[in-house]
């Protein structure tokens, strides 16, 4: 029978909160220094010019400009082009 014992939470009923990963600012959009461009686990996208790779692999803008995504030798890069 599917029921809870003494109105407590079921043993397997726990789940973690989502981490809100992904692209926050897309290609062609403008950024300011410190803006988060991508939150990621691992280096799926690598840092190009004007982008900082933080300790938790988050990519952040280092200068004012426009976000540009590119591909080089099968790897994806993101850079900030000054305007």
Overview of this protein structure:
The chain has strands spanning 22-23, 30-31, 36-39, 45-47, 51-53, 59-61, 65-72, 75-81. It is mainly beta and 83 residues long. The chain has one domain (22-81): RNA polymerase II/Efflux pump adaptor protein, barrel-sandwich hybrid domain (OB fold (Dihydrolipoamide Acetyltransferase, E2P), Beta Barrel), CATH 2.40.50. A hairpin with a 5-residue loop joins strand 5 and strand 6 (59-61). The protein is elongated, with a radius of gyration of 19 Å. GO terms for molecular function: structural constituent of ribosome.
* Fraction in helix: under 10%
- Largest sheet, strands/sense/barrel: 4 strands, antiparallel
| Order of adjacent strands in the largest pleated sheet | 1-3-6-5
Low-confidence stretches: none
Q: Strand content of the residues, in percent?
A: 35-45%
Mean pLDDT: 91
Tally of helical runs: 0
**What general form does the structure show?**
elongated
Q: What structural class do helix, strand and pairing data support?
A: mainly beta
**What would the CATH topology be?**
OB fold (Dihydrolipoamide Acetyltransferase, E2P)
GO molecular function: structural constituent of ribosome
Family: Belongs to the bacterial ribosomal protein bL27 family.
Protein name: Large ribosomal subunit protein bL27
Pfam families: Ribosomal_L27
């Amino acid at each position: 029978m599917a029921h809870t014992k003494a109105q407590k939470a079921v043993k397997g009923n726990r789940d973690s909160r989502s981490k809100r990963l992904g692209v926050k600012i897309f290609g062609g959009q403008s950024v300011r220094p410190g803006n988060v461009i991508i939150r990621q686990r691992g280096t799926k996208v690598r840092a190009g010019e004007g982008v900082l790779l933080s300790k938790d692999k988050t990519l952040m803008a280092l200068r004012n400009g426009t976000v540009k995504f590119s591909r080089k030798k099968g790897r994806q890069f993101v850079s900030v082009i000054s305007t």
